[in-house]
Specification:
two-stranded parallel sheet; 3 helices
Amino acid sequence: LGQILDSIGPVPRVVLIGLANTKAFHSGVNAAMIDAADARPNVAYANWAGIADGSSGLLRSDGVHLTAGGA
């Protein structure tokens, strides 16, 4: 992820959108994005897991795809 961010160059803002924690590997990916955002002043992390939890109605029953309300 660091190499990708480095290749983008000096842009004002990059927003990394976290995964919804519906698969076992998602928490590790989210942690890597949080670390990348913490290490770079122009990178922010959007906590999609915190927004799209199971009670929000934003995701279909598969936990991945958006509902009409989530789109």
